Amino acid sequence: ASKALEKLAQLMPDTAHLIKGSEVKEVKISELKKGDKILIKAGEKIPADGLIVKGSSYIDESMLTGESKPVHKKLEDKVIGGSVNGDTVLEVRVEGTGEESYLTKVINLVKEAQSSKSKTQRFADKAANWLTIIAVTTGAVTLIYWFFYGPDLAFAIERMATVMVITCPHALGLAIPLVTAVSTSLSAKNGLLIRNRTAFENSRKITTVVFDKTGTLTEGNFGVSLVTVTDKNYDEKKIIRLAASLEKNSEHPIAKGIISRAEELKVKTMQVSDFEVIKGQGVKGKIE
């Protein structure tokens, strides 16, 4: 579980490109302040929460929000530190750093959940407490009895130690926290961060799971699943070739899926002229 938190912390880059007038200076993210303007290059991690002041891009927030597909961000939209920029350059005004950042709040929330105890663990602690009292009392009684009726003191101490080892609830005290730690760790390795251990414990009673987001159950990568041909002059490869030729100039996530399919079919793209992106609709261009 602690390794999972470390991985979350590693989502944040070490440095940022700070814009000072006409110059761009590389600084540590700890030096960033609210109101600073930073440059985010294509493919880079965003170093702090902020608002876009120049440019637009598709941002990968899957590790932070669970959103499987990149989210289109434009002027004045908020971006989250730790998310990954797409294929364009952005300028962002810093709004949250350090403890104020979204990622830090998530990490602190998970830490609090991991330090809390579930209902079963609290019950086990109470049981272990009472069993410890019983073990000590039984051991004391055994020592007193054999001290008076046994051959010597060493014999009495041996009997007392035997009784206390047998009755001591150390297994109970170790088993529950160990199971909790292992289950939390395994969950974290699979991308599930536990916020409430009691709720996690009650999850064994779940019979139905309802997902409210499209793409939650997918790999998060777009691809071509079906090509329907309605014109006899075309086949799947020809349609993919035409589509990939246009989409190779686009930065949209769906374009990458089409290009990936073209690579699988080993088809070569063609030259495109008068290429144009039509926002919210698609792309167009002339293929020679």
From TrEMBL:
This is P-type ATPase A domain-containing protein. Residues 11-111 form the P-type ATPase A domain. One of its GO terms (molecular function) is copper ion binding. Its main location: membrane. The chain crosses the membrane at residues 127-148, 160-188. It is found in: Cell membrane. The keyword DNA damage does not apply. Keywords: ATP-binding, Cell membrane, Ion transport, Magnesium, Membrane, Metal-binding, Nucleotide-binding, Phosphoprotein, Translocase, Transmembrane, Transmembrane helix, Transport. It holds the Pfam family E1-E2_ATPase. Belongs to the cation transport ATPase (P-type) (TC 3.A.3) family. Type IB subfamily. GO terms for cellular component: plasma membrane. PROSITE patterns: ATPASE_E1_E2. It is a multi-pass membrane protein. GO terms for biological process: copper ion homeostasis.
